[in-house]
Structure formats: structure tokens, C-alpha cells
Design brief:
The structure holds 2 protein chains of 2 kinds. By secondary structure, chain A is an all-beta fold. Chain A is 0% helix and 49% strand. In chain A, strands 1-9-8-3-4 form a 5-stranded mixed β-sheet, with no helix packed on it. Chain A has a 4-stranded antiparallel β-sheet with strand order 2-7-6-5, with no helix packed on it. In chain A, a hairpin with a 6-residue loop joins strand 3 and strand 4. Chain A starts with 8 loop residues before the first strand and ends with a strand. By secondary structure, chain B is an all-beta fold. In chain B, strands 2, 4, 5, 6, 9, 10 and 11 form a 7-stranded mixed β-sheet that branches. Chain B has a 4-stranded antiparallel β-sheet with strand order 1-3-8-7, with no helix packed on it. Classes of the chains: A mainly beta, B mainly beta. At the A-B interface, strand 3 and strand 4 of A face strand 4, strand 5, strand 9 and strand 10 of B.
Chain lengths: 111, 111
């Protein structure tokens, strides 16, 4: 499984755009990049998934450069409720295997 | 639309006691996963099932841990005998493909 590296923590202010970058130098050809969000006392929740270029949904955007060795989760105009831990994972799409979570990035949004 | 349901939400018990955690996956999902989360080790995959069959239990810490999935709508994770180092939040997740959908976990404290 490709190992991922992301910042341990970040902080920002309400209304700002936040970008969290994840490194995955050993990503395989069949691997997709997936981001999960976890609030205290809750299980992780799927945010977005992509293979290459850019993916956007109602919550976030995911930017993946051509070499796919990194990816950036972009959260537009964050609010206090976006304070959470964000996990970057790499693995095969549609795979039934268990997920390998790293330590994640603890994002703190201040007023 | 019911998500993954775990019970109990919290459990406090003395070491040496048997502990049984329960999970009801989302209807129609054919994969079920048990994870454990601690501050020191983060989120770890313990075991997962596909179509009620255990596929990979290499993450189960030791023989004191066992998991069953008697049917598509129910799974248990049992610890016998329990030890203080088993204290953690235990998550159950289910999926048909990706992404996985997590329950809100069982916070287990072994005194």
C-alpha cells in the first residue's frame, strides 16, 4: 500500500480557503486518492475521491498533478464546523480491502 | 436512511470481563470492517468480512479478540478476557464498493 504523508496540524480562520496537501510518492497505477473527515466522537466520513486532474463536489475540491505523487484537498470558505481531522488515503477503487489510515491532519478553524 | 449502527456507544467494565461490541451494517452492503482508534496508534483495521466471510484478520491483536458475522445484517467483536490496554474507540464500517461508511463507534474503557 502506498504510504501517505500529510501535515500533522493546520489552522486557519473562518471564511478562508484551506488547502491540505498529501504526498504519496509510491502511488500505483490502479490507485485512487480518497479523503475522509473525522469529527470528535464520530466515525470518519468520506469527503471526495479522485484519480487525476481535478474533482469537485459540494464540499471540496481535489487537485491531483499529472505525476499523481501528491494531491491537495481544498476547502472553500471554511467555517468553525470544518474543524476536524482530515485523512488522505490511497488504494484501489472498488477494492473491498480495509483502509489504512495515517495520522491525518488536524485542522483548526478559528473565528 | 439508517447508517451503520453500533452498540453500545459507551462501555466501562473491569479487566477480565468479556466485552461484546455489536454492529448493524447498512442494508445492501456486502463488506464489513472493524477498526480500533487510539491516540497512540490512530485508526487500525482489525478485521474485515466480505459476504459474511472473514477475509483478513491479520490486524486482530491477539487471541483474546474474535469477530463473527452470522448474517448480512449483524456482526460482533468480542474481547475475552478484556485488559486495560484494550481501551479505545472501536468503529464498524460497511461498504458495497468504496467509500466505506462508518458508525459512530463504541468507546470502551477497561478499568
Amino acid at each position: 500500500l502506498a504510504k501517505t504523508t500529510q501535515p500533522i496540524s493546520m489552522d486557519s480562520y473562518e471564511g478562508q480557503e484551506v488547502n491540505i496537501t498529501c504526498s504519496h510518492n509510491n502511488i500505483a497505477t490502479n490507485d485512487y486518492i480518497t479523503w475522509y473527515q473525522q469529527f470528535p466522537s464520530q466515525g470518519p466520513r468520506f469527503i471526495i475521491q479522485g484519480y487525476k486532474t481535478k474533482v469537485t463536489n459540494e464540499v471540496a475540491s481535489l487537485f491531483i498533478p499529472a505525476d499523481r505523487k501528491s494531491s491537495t484537498l481544498s476547502l472553500p470558505r471554511v467555517s468553525l464546523s470544518d474543524t476536524a481531522v482530515y485523512y488522505c488515503l490511497v488504494g484501489q477503487w472498488g477494492g473491498a480491502d480495509g483502509l489504512t489510515f495515517g495520522k491525518g491532519t488536524h485542522l483548526i478553524i478559528q473565528p | 436512511d439508517a447508517g451503520v449502527i453500533q452498540s453500545p456507544r459507551h462501555e466501562v467494565t473491569e479487566m477480565g470481563q468479556e466485552v461484546t461490541l455489536r454492529c448493524k451494517p447498512i442494508s445492501g452492503h456486502n463488506s464489513l470492517f472493524w477498526y480500533r482508534q487510539t491516540m497512540m496508534r490512530g485508526l487500525e483495521l482489525l478485521i474485515y468480512f466480505n459476504n459474511n466471510v472473514p477475509i483478513d484478520d491479520s490486524g486482530m491483536p491477539e487471541d483474546r479478540f474474535s469477530a463473527k458475522m452470522p448474517n448480512a445484517s449483524f456482526s460482533t467483536l468480542k474481547i475475552q478476557p478484556s485488559e486495560p490496554r484494550d481501551s479505545a474507540v472501536y468503529f464498524c464500517a460497511s461498504s458495497r464498493t468504496q467509500p466505506q461508511h462508518f458508525g459512530d463507534g463504541t468507546r470502551l474503557s477497561i478499568l
